[in-house]
Design a protein that fits this description.
alpha+beta; NADH Oxidase; 5-stranded antiparallel beta sheet; 16 helices; Nitroreductase-like; Twin-arginine translocation signal domain-containing protein; TAT_signal
């Protein structure tokens, strides 16, 4: 199943052409060209912070077992690109831990996004194990959200299975750009995503494609974005993961970047030349959400669980990772849009009026189920750029007895 392709050639207005030419002249004039080089204007998605994406398969073949599985796990989807994982290797056993130093603070006070992110990494690891000829038995560790030991994966020789999802691992990127405005998504898309849940009756998928459901969800997302921006602590905790300086980006190899915002090459080039304040970043985020991401969504989808316990969140992360990989393999664009869920957690933390929880419960009336994850899906108009990744060697925790 393929999304509809737009065969029309992009039209560039005279004004846009002149603006681009002027911007190009500014970039290459005087000493600005050197700053442009230093800030990576001409090297989007390249450099040490992106090595994990480019050579992961060749590195997997050369790396000693079971390091290749870690190299696949670190390419998983994760909130704010905080990469909150650590791994311990002991023979044919891999332990997955939460790196609580990478908690998102007031953006994730209930650790919901951290555990969903860890579930995404676990799913990639399992897919890579099967592709390497191993059967992977994953056991989720007991305990509450305070426990950092997430899962133990026991590897035994098995049948080699290189799946469609495994092959999509290096091509799965969050697409924050405008999606193509197709007439309607095929009904088979919803069915395909639903099928990826499998026999797990602890995760449910809500599909919001028809009006007024889709526009209502869009309004909730926009209002949640405004609420986060207006919350000084949430705004600060979100912005601290933004990597503007190229030297910092390649040193940290994490966080959000201008290249991954879905902006045009011209906007990214100009943006890299000047400092970006928290206020400027917030206004750009709101504008992109309101004017680009919400209006061009083909559909919104939500994952729900009957319990918000750690195991349920991890399983939901595994489900989303499968969905995003399947979408990448079949030509669909995906972007998590968890602003409403982040505000629900904040309301709970601060004992605020449950405005966003009630809004989502009214939109998706499933008594006894909790909405924990929101994303949009549609036909891509652009090829998304990768986000930074720390190498597998940097996420090994050797000091655990």
């Amino acid at each position: 199943m393929e999304p509809k392709k737009n065969s029309a050639q992009p039209q560039v207005s005279r004004r846009s052409f002149l603006k681009a030419a002027l911007a190009g002249a500014v970039i290459v004039s005087g000493g600005t060209v050197w700053k442009a080089i230093d800030q990576g204007v001409f090297s989007a998605g390249k450099g040490p912070a992106y090595e994990a994406w480019r050579d992961w398969e060749s590195a997997m073949e050369a790396a000693p077992h079971p390091m290749p599985l870690i190299k696949a796990a670190i390419l998983a989807a994760n909130a704010h690109n905080a990469q909150p994982w650590l791994f311990r290797i002991n023979g044919n056993v891999i332990d997955l831990f939460a790196d609580i130093s990478r908690n998102l603070g007031s953006m994730d006070p209930m650790l919901r996004e951290m555990h969903i992110s860890l579930g995404c990494a676990l799913e990639n690891l399992i897919l890579a194990a099967r592709a390497s000829g191993y059967s992977a038995e994953a056991t989720l560790m007991s305990g509450g959200h305070e426990q950092i030991h997430i899962a133990r994966i026991a590897l035994t020789p098995g049948e080699k299975s290189i799946s469609e999802l495994y092959k999509a691992i290096p091509n799965r990127h969050t697409d924050r750009s405008a999606f193509e405005r197709t007439s309607e998504l095929p009904s088979s898309l919803h069915a395909s995503l639903q099928g990826l849940i499998g026999q797990d009756d602890e995760v449910s998928l809500a599909w919001l494609q028809d009006e007024p459901l889709k526009s209502t969800m869009g309004d909730i997302i926009i209002n949640a974005t405004k609420a986060i921006i207006s919350d000084a602590e949430q705004s600060r905790d979100s912005h601290r993961w933004y990597r503007h300086d190229r030297e910092v980006l390649h040193a940290m190899k994490d966080g959000t970047t201008l290249d991954a915002t879905g902006s045009s090459p011209l906007t990214r080039a100009i943006g890299k030349l000047f400092p970006v304040s928290e206020a400027t970043s917030n206004q750009y985020w709101l504008k992109s959400t309101r004017d680009t991401q919400v209006p061009t969504a083909g559909a919104f989808a939500c994952l729900l669980v009957p319990n918000r316990d750690r195991a349920s969140l991890i399983r939901a992360g595994q489900v989303f990772q499968r969905m995003h990989l399947w979408a990448a393999a079949n030509g669909w664009a995906v972007q998590p849009m968890n602003q409403p869920n982040e505000r629900i957690d904040r309301e709970h933390e601060k004992d605020l009026a449950p405005s966003f929880r009630e809004a989502l419960e009214k939109l998706i009336p499933l008594p006894g189920w909790h909405n924990i994850f929101t994303f949009r899906i549609g036909s891509p108009a652009n090829v998304p750029l990768p986000s930074p990744r720390r190498p597998a060697e940097d996420v090994l925790w050797r000091s655990i007895p």
